Amino acid sequence: MYIWGDKLKPTITAVVPYYNMGRYIADAVNSLLNQTWQDLDIIVVNDGSDEENTRALQQFEDNPRIKNIYQENRGGQIARSNGYRMAEGKYVIFLDADDTFESTFAEKAVAILETNQDICLVSCLGRFFGDRNGINKRQPYTVENILAGRSHSGAGMFRKSDWESMPGKDSNLPYGQDWDFWVSMIARGKKAYRIEEFLYNYRRHGDSIISRRRSRDKKKTDVIGTLLEKHKELYTQYPQVASELAAERTADIGFSMPRFMELKKQKYKLILFMASLPGFNKTLNKVAQKAGNKLDYFNSL
Q1: What are phi and psi of 172, to 5 degrees?
Q2: How many CB atoms lie within 10 A of CB 185?
Q3: Is the dihedral of CA 217, 179, 285, 283 positive or negative?
Q4: Could you state, in order of their start, the residue ranges of all structural domains in the chain?
Q5: Is the confidence at residue 165, as pLDDT, over 50?
Q6: What's the mean per-residue pLDDT of the chain?
Q7: First to last CA, the chain
């Protein structure tokens, strides 16, 4: 516990966004209750689950360490944000309702954050279980990999004070708040740390293997424009990374005029930004050639 004002607060708050995961929620919550670091409370945010799956949360009603919160269905990112706003812990972790942590993660993460003020976030290695077993491969924690989204993970612990101090944080991003947070902290000279142990377990079940991947990829490309514009000063210091991201975004929108007009309306201004990046034309030419289009298309816009 720690003292905030005249009240004792838990050291860690875990936020669990929940939508129709009644079969798995007990595993997720128990993996938090069974942490070796016991000074931890839990907020489960029910994102408009159906009646049967809402009843599954009744098993936690008598546990003083668990709060159940209900919201109309607005998506997991909004559920995370609402849970975060109610978090009282010095440190915060997010856990998907069908995943689990190994029992020592919280203790090891707290030890690192307590002794290293320049580290803003602690994550770990992850593995798949359920319908698919294996390792969730992530690139090493270099600045380039973090900017490119090749190493960030939602499985991490961070200081609430660092999140609160993040300039221009956007709680309405449909995806990528954690990525945005990582990039913002890098811009401020902070670091991320990965525990080289498999302490996070990603459950794979049914059609979620395909649907999650498709949803994740689409959302990633949707948020790239926002990140490039918001963190332009930082990304221009790493032109190769910025070029690759811009090319990925451009490839996803299919080189169609309607989609470019949509981007302009959203004020992403990606085309001008891409044109300013050294080496981007070379990268884009490869993408355009593969898609059967020409770079001249952009020059005509």
Answers
A1: -95, 0
A2: 23
A3: negative
A4: 2-205, 217-299
A5: yes
A6: 81
A7: 58
Strands 12-18 and 40-47 turn out to be parallel
Question: Residue range 121-136: average pLDDT?
Answer: 92
Q: Is 46 helix (H, G, I), strand (E, B) or coil?
A: strand
pLDDT tens, 94-120?
999 999 999 999 999 999 999 999 999
As given in the structure block, the two tokens for residue 223 are 């948020």
Q: Look up tokens 């945005």; give the residue.
A: 180
Q: Assign a CATH topology to domain 2-205.
A: Spore Coat Polysaccharide Biosynthesis Protein SpsA; Chain A (3.90.550)
Burial class from Cβ neighbours inside 10 Å (0-12, 13-18, 19+) for residue 138 reads middle
Count of beta carbons in the 10 Å neighbourhood of residue 53: 18
Reported pTM = 0.78
The residues, any chain, with a CB within 8 Å of residue 17's CB and separated by 6 or more, are: 45, 47, 76, 79, 80, 83, 94, 96, 97
